[in-house]
Amino acid sequence: MGQLVGRRKGGGIGIALVTAAVLVGASACGGSGSDKADGDNGKPSAKASASPSPTKPKGPPMLLETIMPQGGATVGVAMPVSVVFTNPVAEKARASVEKHMKISASQPVEGAWHWFGDKRADWRPKEYWPSGTKVKVVADMEGVSNGNGRYGTHSYTHTFKVGDDVRADVSVSGHTMKVTKNGSAVRTLSINAGSAEYPTWNGTMAVIDKQEKVHMTSCSVGISCDKGSPNYYDLTLPWDVHLTQSGTYVHYSTGDPNPGSGSARGSHGCVHLSMSDAKWFYGQVKQGDPVTITGSPRAKAPADNGYAAFNLSWDQWLQGSGSGEGTTATL
Fold it and tell me: Are 103 and 140 in contact (CB under 8 A)?
């Protein structure tokens, strides 16, 4: 199977409180779909929450729907801070909103916000987070305008930690996945990736989440709803590591039980591992660990198709920022 059910200025900087940590995606491996993320511009599903302020707002509230990663989480080195607003934020107000979303770190790093449309803003470091970094997000939004007649009514505080530096490098043409931890090689696994018809995304995708079992269907990603088609599938498969909102996973597939250069069976866009390797890999990775895929004929995954922030160069990232690059305060 392949994919399931994405100008330099001054300094800028994060927003909301959450109760869950997943992006809502398609329901099956499917590599031939749009180059845009499915759903609402990659927005996470968890709801933001905070104690209401006694101060009467100036107008309708500016609400924050989510912030990722989840409070108290330990994440990988490629995980951005991702904030989703319930209502659109006007371009003229973004620099001000960014400056009220302050990020502090135990090891100061350079970084910047980037807007995906008018509701989602992600903050990423210029380079990967240093392992062991503690991060605090304070969104002092009370009285802050979204430029569309709404005003923030809450202040939010949110913390997480960057864990071990675990990376996976996938060679589509070489049929291998090399896994490293804190700079040391751990294992090289045999893989198969997408076919010529359904190629896998290239680029670096931070792990969105993982599940022991996922129900995958070809119909859910627009491949085929015809049970007589050779591309039709409706399966529940194990050890699933979620890479893009449009449905890319690293997982085991019953249709490709012994992946590698010998079998060279193509998927519908996912990365296939053997059962034992899929279970092992599942146990190694966490949200935010970077999985980098090379050698596919497909383009890099869009930066908002999940958490693929590092698929944009630093200059490209800054072009989507209201306030430009800056260095985190010291925590």
Answer: no
Residue 185: is it exposed, middle or buried by C-beta count within 10 angstroms (0-12/13-18/19+)? exposed
pLDDT tens digits along 216-230 = 888 888 888 989 998
Report the helix count and the strand count for the chain, using DSSP H and E.
3, 19
Residue 59 and residue 40 in contact, taking contact as beta carbons nearer than 8 Å: no
The tally of CA atoms less than 13 A away on the side-chain side of residue 321 is 30
The SS3 call for residue 88 is coil
d(CA 119, CA 41): 8
Chain centre to alpha carbon of residue 5: 15
Identity at 115, one-letter amino acid code: W
What's the pTM? Answer: 0.85
For 49-76, what is each residue's pLDDT tens digit?
455 555 555 679 998 899 999 899 999 9
Q: Which of 25, 162, 9 is nearest to 95 (CA)?
A: 9
Condensed to tens digits (0 to 9), the pLDDT of residues 236-246 reads 999 999 999 99
Predicted pLDDT at 42: 43
d(CA 123, CA 136): 13
* CA–CA gap between residue 261 and residue 111 (Å, rounded): 40
Closest CA to 85 of 162, 12, 25, 16: 16
Q: Single out the residue of 325, 331, 329 nearest to residue 127, CA to CA.
A: 325
Residue whose C-alpha is closest to residue 35's, from 226, 199, 219, 242 = 199
Q: Among positive and negative, which fits the CA dihedral 147, 152, 157, 159? A: negative
Instruction: Please give the helix or strand (H or E) that residue 98 lies within, else none.
Output: helix 94-99
Average pLDDT over every residue of 171-178: 96
Question: Cα separation of 152 and 97, whole Å?
Answer: 10
